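Hi team,

Below is the intake form for NPAL3 protein from Prunella fulvescens. Please confirm the fields before the structure is written into the shared record.

FORM ID: S-0412
PROTEIN: NPAL3 protein
ORGANISM: Prunella fulvescens
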Amino acid sequence: MEGGNSPSLQLQQLPLATAAVSVQPHTDSFSYKENLIGALLAIFGHLVSSIALNLQKYSHIRLAGSKDPRAYFRTKTWWSGFLLLVLGELGVFSSYAFAPLSLIVPLSAVSVVASAIIGIIFIKEKWKPKEFLRRYVLSFVGCGLAVVGTYLLVTFGPNSHEKMTAENITRHLVSWPFLLYMLVEIIVFCLLLYFYKERNANYIVIILLLVALLGSMTVVTVKAVAGMVLVSIQGTLQLDSPIFYIMLVCMIATAIYQATFLAQASQLYDSAQISSIGYILSTTAAISAGATFYLDFMGEDVLHICMFALGCLIAFLGVFLITRNRKKPVPFEPYISMDAMPGMQNMHDKGIAVQPDLKASFSYGALENNDSMPEIYSPATLPIVQEQHGSRGGSAPPYRVLEHSKKE
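The structure came back. Fields below:
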């Protein structure tokens, strides 16, 4: 009897196993839907943020070119840009709650593409079609590559999803892969900070690597905070857990220091270089952090990982071509200030005035090489003679033109 009953027991357990397996496709379709929602929110957020920043820039330029005495924060254009910027950042923040971290971070290329298109549409220069294509062909190619890379990122992005509960985040936080990753990152960050502060190594790669390492921790904490907020809205309260506030404090601190290093980089280097190199380094560091902390690529096949990496490389190339075509601002240096030259006098000093004060003039003291000019074209020296009031009531002329002799 026991031998006869064992086959029936096995047949009764088989439907249960198949039913458990059939749940997986439904979960995959739901996760793809979440990926799409997160990607659309990120694209919308970056697009709106780019429009907002251009609106605020337009407000500053308009005030600088007019006689309007109002401050920039008293204009409707600036406040419209500010509200759109808040809306865009909220969209990007919400996207981290739905899609994996490694999928959301590379989509920041949308803001670079949008800024390039807005700059081409609202350009104020007169141009011919041939000149337009010659000057902006790299921008068009870069925009096309960035769009293709974004499509590959969304299509072949990682498909790992889990609820961002306090228990899951704590478990990821104390896992040995992330602890090892944090140890390596702290060592690299300290070395870079030492060379930057103590050795005065103000290279753009070093500064942007510091920004990228801080940014990787920022996006990790942003996803944790956004995920716990979403789970709390869905009905399971997570805001009373200490790990939520730890992640919130880390998010704010790393974002502040990241902005500080970016401000220092903007003072030393061109914004186009910062945009391209910063995007590449920050995206690479953030994907590495997401793959280590949230295990984004766990269970993915090799083909999907290779196509995702190809999408990242194409997006990197597109951003590089877009930023490479931007005009570099050339500082205007119309003259050399005599105040900056040791031993030279200005009109406010006592004695002989060599040259007028140049702080408010753009027409005197231009950068010209006068070594090859004849002696007769050399400027005359105008010594200042103090007016003397004598008993005869006469006064000497205030100025006397002397013949200039060139000293060897």
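SUMMARY LINE: The radius of gyration is 32 Å.

Thanks, M.
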